[in-house]
Design goal:
The chain is of the alpha/beta class. The chain has 11 helices and 20 strands. It is elongated, with a radius of gyration of 32 Å.
């Protein structure tokens, strides 16, 4: 199944990048461009995206293009800068440094800067509000290194963008990307733990072998200076309601009572642990589980970086694909391939249409010139021919024309109509074709 086909199995999708300039906006545009015609879609960003130039590196960035009918959310400042016709659907109460959040529908195709709700809670409220507008699919653009939009509490599925901007060393790039993908794929906690801990939103808790829950007294793992003398006694798991830090894992590793212990967090966006710290914890028998699990659909790679680093796309994709369990795409290459594919199909179709029209011309020529020519010949060759019934000439010409006409239908018209249908399907899957892949 294609990337777009996978995406359409979900009602919401977030695209997050491990670093700036890893191709997140290219991926966003690719998805927007290739969504089926007629699908009621909405898009926003938890940060600001769509600017022409990167404010940090000064390099050019891809702008965001919306099709007619797409619903989007951005702030008042950037709504006034839009380069499309739109109707305002809602003006939010939540204010930001660049104005209130405007929800609008594009009445024409054009470019826009996205700057949606700045908080995860605000983002959830905005997504809920889209139901009254008949939205079938919501696309969320994540800000730099902010994974919160990918939380299962916000979106059903996600795409992870990585690339040379993350690291100039391919081994490091692949290792960090694999670590991020592994965090997304962490297993669910046991069902009884999920039910018991779902309502616990703060603190660090120990879960006894008998199922009892005991608080550490700390508000979060950040405020834990040490594990109490009895906190880990008869403990089979620890629940961290907020952020899970590497420092906290190191404390568990240093305590012999925590050997083989399970650490439970709400979802992968709460984990702030390096690949080194995580691997060290696992090697000692530790395990991390989540109350809510995200669905990683794909990883996209950008083999170039603003500082001039260029990696081989095929090699990068191959190495990343070996390290993760989901499809890996270079969106730029995918788009070029799709465009080439569609271009060839269109050229062939246009040739077939021209050939069919030529065939029609031949049919008409047969009717007009052949009939007239035969009648002239028989009139000259057979005196008194005009007095004969010319039915046999009509039958002769009909047979000749039928052969030409049937050949045209079989050789030209049927393949042309089939190609037109195929092209329509390709455009529906992603409209520019798209290569998109």
């Amino acid at each position: 199944m294609t990337l777009i086909g996978d995406i359409l199995g979900y009602k919401s999708l977030s695209i997050v990048g491990l670093e700036k300039n890893t191709g997140k906006t290219e991926c966003l545009n690719y998805v927007l461009r290739n969504l089926p015609e007629g699908l009621a879609a909405a898009v926003t960003s938890i940060g600001t995206d769509g600017e022409r130039k990167d404010v940090v590196t000064g390099t050019r960035k891809p702008e965001i293009y919306l099709r007619c009918g797409t619903i989007f959310a951005t702030t008042e400042k950037y709504y006034l800068r839009r380069r499309l016709v739109a109707e305002v659907l809602d003006v939010g109460d939540e204010g930001t440094s660049v104005g209130r959040i405007i929800t609008a529908r594009a009445l024409s195709g054009g470019k826009v800067m996205l700057s949606g709700p700045p908080s995860t809670a605000g983002l959830r409220r905005w997504i809920s509000s889209l139901e009254r507008h008949g939205v079938e699919f919501t696309l969320i653009d994540g800000a730099l290194s902010r994974l919160s939009p990918a939380s299962p509490a916000v979106s059903e599925a996600m795409i992870l963008a990585t690339g040379a901007a993350l690291s100039a060393d391919m081994k490091t790039l692949v290792r960090e990307t694999a670590h991020a993908a592994a965090m997304v794929a962490l297993p669910l906690a046991e069902e009884e733990d999920i039910e018991r801990l779902a309502a616990v939103e703060t603190g660090v808790w120990s879960i006894g072998k008998d199922g009892s829950i005991r608080s550490s007294g700390a508000g979060s793992s950040l405020s834990v200076d040490g594990l109490g003398s009895d906190f880990l006694d008869d403990c089979r798991a620890v629940y961290v309601a907020g952020a899970l830090t590497e420092r906290f894992l190191d404390m568990l590793r240093a305590d012999t009572r925590a050997s083989g212990i399970e650490v439970i967090v709400r979802d992968f966006t709460k984990i702030f642990v390096s690949s080194r710290g995580y691997n060290a914890f696992v090697r000692q028998g530790g395990r991390i589980a989540v109350l809510q699990r995200s669905k990683l659909l794909a990883v996209t790679v950008n083999p170039t970086a603003p500082n001039g680093i260029v990696m081989d796309s095929d090699t990068l994709r191959e190495h990343v694909a070996e390290a993760v369990d989901v499809p890996v795409y270079d969106i730029i290459i995918t788009k070029e391939i799709a465009m080439d594919k569609l271009s060839i199909m269109r050229d062939v179709r246009n040739f077939m249409w021209r050939a069919f029209l030529i065939n029609i011309g031949l049919v008409l020529a047969c009717w007009i010139f052949v009939k007239l020519g035969l009648m002239q010949y028989f009139t000259w060759a057979l005196p008194g021919f005009a007095q004969f019934d010319v039915t046999f000439i009509n039958m002769f010409i009909m047979q000749l024309v039928s052969i030409v006409d049937i050949a045209g239908v079989v050789l030209f018209l049927v393949p042309t109509l089939a190609l037109s249908w195929m092209i329509g399907c390709e455009k529906g899957k992603v409209q520019t074709q798209k290569k998109r892949k």
